[in-house]
Structure formats: structure tokens, C-alpha cells
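Input (structure):
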């Protein structure tokens, strides 16, 4: 199973899930380009992320994979399936769609974070990511996710 994180997060979002498998099967978590500890490079479209995932699969010599993608990670998973269906045994698509947002909504978000920083949108994003009960009861974890998102490289987030 390959886990593909959402926009503004890194592979740590999968820690609890990965730990439950405890060696039962091969798992791969990675930071997509411009996220976590990965280099930013030149990101022009979702296809760049699909290219990276495809190259990662080839690098490890994997012939069959199950892809688990969250949000934009789910779009990357779908893109890989469209391109290389013969290697995808299954898709686990979490809170995603074939298209998320509109050109206008993404351009507005990009303009906001470029002019005001990721901090300007972080609270609103976290309200969508987590339930009110999570916000009320798990403040330390919420702070960690806020830090993960806001410490993201701006160029990686925008890309």
C-alpha cells in the first residue's frame, strides 16, 4: 500500500494507520514534491506528482500496488491509475474527487497565501479537516497539524 498525503501535510499523517499494520504487509509513505522533507522542484500540475509517484514505484521495482490517497493525494492516485492501470490492484480514495475546486478557487487561494502566508488560510482549512469535537478535545494534535501546514514551504504549497 502506498499512502499519498493531502495538500499542506507530510507523511506523518499516516503514522497511526501505518503502525496498526505492524509488518503485516509492505507499506510506503512518502512526501510528495514540495511537501515535508521532499525537494520542491518545479511543480506545474498534478501530472508532476503523478510522474513522481510513477518513478517512485519504478525505483522500488513494484509491480502491483494499492494506492491510498487523501484529498489531492487521491487525485494523484487516480491519475496514476489512469496512466498505469496494470499496476494498480486497488484504490483507497479518502475525501477526494476527480476534480477538487475550480480554477478561480485555486487562484484565489494561491493569491491569498502568496500575499499573506499559509497562516491566513490555516484555521479555515483545519475547520474543514477536523470536526468540532476534535477541535474541542484534541487541541495539542490540532496545534501540530496547524504547525505542519503553516511550516510548509510556500512554493511547495502553491505548486
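Output (sequence):
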Amino acid at each position: 500500500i502506498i499512502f499519498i498525503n493531502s495538500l499542506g501535510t507530510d507523511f506523518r499523517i499516516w503514522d497511526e494507520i501505518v503502525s496498526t499494520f505492524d509488518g503485516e504487509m509492505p507499506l510506503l509513505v512518502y512526501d510528495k514534491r514540495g511537501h515535508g522533507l521532499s525537494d520542491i522542484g518545479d511543480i506545474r500540475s498534478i501530472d508532476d506528482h503523478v510522474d513522481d509517484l510513477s518513478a517512485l514505484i519504478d525505483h522500488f521495482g513494484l509491480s502491483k500496488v494499492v494506492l491510498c490517497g487523501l484529498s489531492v493525494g487521491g487525485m494523484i492516485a487516480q491519475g496514476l491509475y489512469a496512466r498505469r492501470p496494470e499496476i494498480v490492484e486497488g484504490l483507497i480514495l479518502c475525501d477526494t474527487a476527480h476534480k477538487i475546486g475550480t480554477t478561480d478557487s485555486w487562484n484565489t487561494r494561491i493569491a491569498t497565501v502568496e500575499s499573506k502566508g499559509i497562516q491566513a488560510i490555516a484555521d479555515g482549512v483545519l475547520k474543514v479537516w477536523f470536526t468540532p469535537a476534535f477541535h474541542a478535545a484534541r487541541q495539542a494534535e490540532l496545534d501540530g497539524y496547524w504547525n505542519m501546514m503553516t511550516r510548509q514551504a510556500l512554493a511547495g504549497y502553491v505548486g
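Notes: The chain has eight helices and four strands. The first strand starts at residue 2 and ends at 4.
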